[in-house]
Design a protein that fits this description.
Number of helices: 8
Strand content: under 5%
Structural class: mainly alpha
Shape: globular
Distance between the termini: 50 Å
Helix content: over 70%
Order of helices and strands: HHHHHHHH
Number of strands: 0
Radius of gyration: 15 Å
Number of domains: 1
Largest sheet: none
Oligomer: single chain
Length: 159
């Protein structure tokens, strides 16, 4: 039976705190959007690092995310509960990696990532429905982040 996460669940385990985006995944409506927004302050810190460190941080976030999301999903009794938003954190960071500085690019990156994460065009939808575990929770948002990032980079060339 699926469990509904609450504040107690959030603080029961450090993996839950991270997997639920420091509580942003508890939003009653659009937890993925709130999770993506909660990832923005972290991106501002990450963006101040050299590109190779940014990439390392993103790769580490992905690897740890597999474990975090798997742990939270098991505890909640649902493969990809809507409150699990660490995948949105990493997906947004991928989107914003190596784009020009400035709020325009951050806002566009946020919007592009949310579009791909919500609409789930091929192959995102296939990955979302066919790949299980923590890797499955993470991989569709990674691909959404790559697709949104490519669109953002294309927009940067045009503008």
């Amino acid at each position: 039976m699926a469990k509904q996460p609450d504040i107690k669940f959030l603080f029961d385990n450090p993996a839950h705190l991270l997997a639920l985006g420091f509580g942003s995944g508890l939003a009653p409506k659009a937890p993925g959007t709130f999770g993506t927004a909660a990832a923005l302050p972290f991106w501002l810190i990450i963006a101040s690092m050299p590109a190779i460190y940014q990439l390392g941080f993103i790769v580490l976030g992905f690897a740890i995310g597999i474990l975090l999301c798997e742990s939270a999903a098991r505890a909640l009794g649902v493969h990809d509960h809507g409150s699990i938003v660490w995948d949105e954190f990493v997906g947004l960071w991928i989107t914003l990696y190596l784009v020009p500085d400035g709020w325009l690019w951050i806002v566009l990156g946020f919007l592009f990532f949310r579009f791909f994460d919500i609409v789930k065009p091929w192959p995102i939808k296939v990955l979302d429905s066919k790949v299980g575990g923590g890797f499955g929770i993470m991989i569709d948002d990674v691909v959404a982040g790559v697709m949104a990032g490519l669109l953002l980079k294309w927009a940067a060339v045009l503008i």
